[in-house]
Design brief:
216 residues; alpha/beta; Nucleoside Triphosphate Pyrophosphohydrolase; 6 helices
Length: 216
């Protein structure tokens, strides 16, 4: 399965075999891919302009081809970030452009994903003494660039540890707050959080439950 968020709604690419007898329901559209990328663009456009569907599942016999065809429609941007825990069990969150988020940023030319993850977390929050764990999740979302072209951002997420310390939000990147918070404080917050960040949090909890494999 290959999940992409568009306007906070899900576009999922799957093999036809995995769909079997599933059918569309209210709010969820299931549709076959005919091999023409124009069809994929029509679904992207639909999710950008309306909230008619909270989820669109597109299926094809060859998932690899479907993914490649989909990605060919965008400028693909690679990013890295981290879910940082301190000794109190709190997580490092940032508040940016009206949403709770996790620190991440674009991978520079020739830069390794791990190095980019540490650099971006340090730059966006002012944190020091990061212990890097394993990459545990990848998110994807579509947005518009300043020139009007669509971009597909693929973000690689690493588990991290750091001691509790004063944080300095990077205001130049529209970050107004950097705070240590518990997961339940985020879930109960009146301020929204991006759905792909909720996915990162759930993936972290799931991996941690599997014999704590996030750190060597």
């Amino acid at each position: 399965m290959y999940k992409i968020y568009i306007n906070e709604n899900e576009l999922i690419l799957q093999e036809t075999e995995s769909i079997k007898d599933k059918k569309s329901t209210k709010g969820i559209l299931i549709a076959p891919y005919n091999g023409k990328t124009k069809l994929l663009l029509s679904y992207v456009d639909m999710l950008e302009k309306t909230n008619r569907f909270e989820k669109i599942i597109i299926h094809f016999k060859d998932l690899k081809q479907l993914k490649n065809d989909f990605e060919s429609l965008f400028k693909v941007i690679r990013a890295s970030g981290g879910l940082v825990k301190n000794e109190l069990g709190e997580t490092l969150f940032i508040f940016r452009r009206g949403f709770w988020d996790l620190p991440k940023g674009k991978i520079d030319m020739g830069e390794k994903k791990k190095a980019a993850a540490i650099r971006e977390v340090e730059e966006e929050t002012g944190i020091k003494s990061i212990e890097l764990g394993k990459k545990f999740y990848t998110t994807r979302h579509v947005y518009k660039l300043s020139n009007g072209r669509r971009a597909l951002k693929k973000s690689f997420w690493y588990a991290m540890k750091a001691p509790n310390q004063k944080l300095i939000p990077q205001t130049a990147e529209d970050i107004t707050e950097a705070k240590w918070l518990k997961f339940n404080q985020i879930y109960n917050s009146k301020r929204p959080i991006y759905k792909n960040i909720e996915d990162v949090m759930e993936a972290f909890k799931s991996q941690k439950a599997k014999k704590n494999i996030l750190f060597s």
